[in-house]
Design a protein that fits this description.
Length: about 450
């Protein structure tokens, strides 16, 4: 009997000695569960902040974006009920006990391998909170900083043609031809005859018109025009890209130092090319005129085109030319001169230009300064051996736009748009395409709704 009493007494002692350790592990487990719970809440707040901030990307300018940072802060403090929120920038934070810090970076900067690092079309948010512990205080840990990161951007708007003119009749028009698209078309003019279509076929899944359609005499195999729509938001789906593209392009004030032989040192006036030439990115004061018989290769990069008089500037590609360029973009700074394809290659040559697939100019082939109102003719045609892949942006100019050759994408944003034309007796209809698989960030034309991307 004494042996049994002795064993039971030892068990009680062992349990008594182990109980604080067991309770300690139980307490730490409770703290870990609570921290995981807070981590989920903080991640939700970071996601909400990223979406709210992304909604404001199109309102940003080169001088800052207070609406973007304020939206992120409000999403955390008000919408997700976090107390004592402080908003700042950067990649790390050390909040005081019970406080919350919201880091907002546009563009994202904290992860070097992030495909959106340095891209103003995206915003990253980091929410960090000092979370108090309960049982872990016994071991000297009174609080733990918990953080979560998220990233947002603008979702695609689903439209690929925009006429930005706010007042004029026929801001978007088709006469005696055909237009076909698998993406939407938007006419922002409030004129009662904003959209003009006469004796043609206009096929698109969406045709939105702020004003009226002026009783169009056209067939509509897809959707009929929807008139009286509200002004789209944003009105200009590429305005958010202007500052970054301008900053990345060669300076308009530096002329002709980057062209290769035989044009090294070209210092001003229109550059006329009528033979073989290889050009490098740089600033071409007076613009570039590619004449009949020329064979020109544009090396990858951005080409800034300026005008030295009222009669030059821009880019002209003439009859019987052979022109090629991959990963190229043209910044038509102006203030004069447009982009014109004069009969394109007219079967005697071949023209093929493709926009960059990464960087600030991702997806943009032609970008005309909003201060330049010179009209342009942009033609992509199998009949004329001209293939143009990229988005064309002429926010204050009228553009004649004709494409009968299939490409991945050929978006257009212009003040006024006329579809189709006749060259050498050949009618060229127009088709729009929207395959953005070659672009990491999808369509350059963004809608107004923020989405999570990470």
């Amino acid at each position: 009997m004494s042996r049994w009493r002795s064993d039971s007494g030892q068990t009680i002692v062992i349990v008594a000695l182990a109980l604080p350790v067991l309770l300690g592990f139980l307490g730490v487990g409770f703290d870990m569960g609570y921290l995981r719970y807070r981590k989920r809440q903080i991640q939700m707040a970071a996601d909400a902040a990223a979406i709210a901030a992304a909604n404001e990307i199109t309102s940003c300018t080169s001088s800052g974006c207070s609406t973007l940072t304020k939206a992120a802060e409000t999403a955390v403090s008000t919408d997700n009920s976090f107390p004592d929120v402080t908003q700042t920038t950067g990649c790390s934070a050390t909040p005081s006990s019970g406080d919350t810090i919201v880091l907002v970076n546009n563009p994202p900067t904290c992860i070097a391998t992030d495909p959106h690092n340095g891209n103003n079309s995206y915003v990253e948010t980091i929410v960090a909170q000092n979370v108090p512990t309960f049982f872990s205080k016994v071991f000297g840990t009174t609080s733990v900083t918990v953080s979560a990161r998220s990233e947002g951007g603008l979702g695609g708007g689903g439209n690929c043609i925009y006429a930005l003119d706010q007042t004029n009749a026929n801001a978007l028009q088709l006469v005696l031809g055909a237009y076909a698209s698998n993406c939407g078309v938007v006419d922002e003019s409030d004129s009662s005859s904003a959209f003009g279509c006469f004796l043609g076929s206009f096929s698109a899944p969406y045709i939105g018109v702020v004003g009226g359609d002026g009783f169009p005499f056209c067939l509509f195999p897809g959707a009929s025009p929807t008139t009286g729509i509200k002004d789209p938001s944003p009105q200009d789906p590429l305005a958010y890209r202007q500052s970054t593209m301008e900053a990345d392009a060669p300076s308009p004030s530096s002329c002709g130092t980057s062209t290769s032989s035989p044009y090294s040192g070209h210092s001003g006036g229109v550059l006329n090319i009528n033979s073989a030439a290889v050009l490098n990115s740089g600033t071409y004061c007076g613009g570039i005129n590619i004449g009949p018989g020329a064979n020109v290769t544009f090396n990858p990069g951005i080409y800034t085109l300026t005008s030295t008089s009222g009669s030059n500037g821009g880019l002209t590609i003439g009859v019987g030319t052979t022109v090629s360029g991959t990963d190229v973009g043209f910044y038509n700074y102006g203030p004069n001169g447009g982009v014109n394809f004069v009969c394109s290659s007219c079967t005697a040559g071949n023209v093929s230009l493709t926009a960059p697939t990464s960087g600030p100019w991702e997806g943009i082939l032609f970008f005309q300064n909003p201060q330049d109102s010179a009209s342009s003719v942009v033609v992509g045609s199998a009949f004329f051996n001209t293939k143009l892949t990229g988005t064309s942006y002429f926010p204050n100019a009228s553009v004649t736009f004709a494409f009968d050759i299939q490409v991945d994408y050929n978006d257009l944003v212009a003040k006024d748009v006329t579809f189709g034309l006749t060259l050498n007796g050949q009618d060229i209809g127009t088709n729009s395409y929207n395959n953005y698989s070659s672009l990491a960030n999808g369509s350059p034309l963004k809608g107004s709704s923020g989405v999570l991307v990470q």
